[in-house]
Write a structure and sequence with these properties.
It contains 2 helices and 4 strands. With about 90 residues, it is α+β, with helices and mostly antiparallel strands. It has one domain (about 1-85). β3 (about 70-75) and β4 form a beta hairpin.
């Protein structure tokens, strides 16, 4: 799994603290789930293996400019990627 080195270590259930940190950084975050990957064979491989290793997964990047991978971690529903970018202000 991966986590950007600037992210504090939040405990499970620290959603409010995590959201406050994201807002303080001026980030927009979108979560992409491996379960709903655009290439169905990738999600099938992951769930059939029963192994949390998802190193072969290249998460779908959201539309638009400036997205970077903030974190990839395992959840009860499989691996997810948090894409982030600086808030776009007009």
């Amino acid at each position: 799994m991966f986590q950007h080195p600037e992210i504090p270590d939040f405990d499970e259930g620290d959603d409010d603290k995590c959201e406050a940190w994201i807002a303080a950084q001026g980030l927009q975050v979108k979560m992409v789930s491996l379960e709903y990957h655009s290439d169905e064979s990738v999600s099938e491989r992951y769930f059939e293996a029963g192994d949390p290793d998802c190193s072969y997964w290249e998460p779908d990047r959201p539309d638009g400019e400036g997205w970077f991978c903030l974190a990839i971690h395992d959840t009860d529903d499989g691996s997810v990627c948090w894409w982030a970018r600086r808030e776009v202000t007009p």
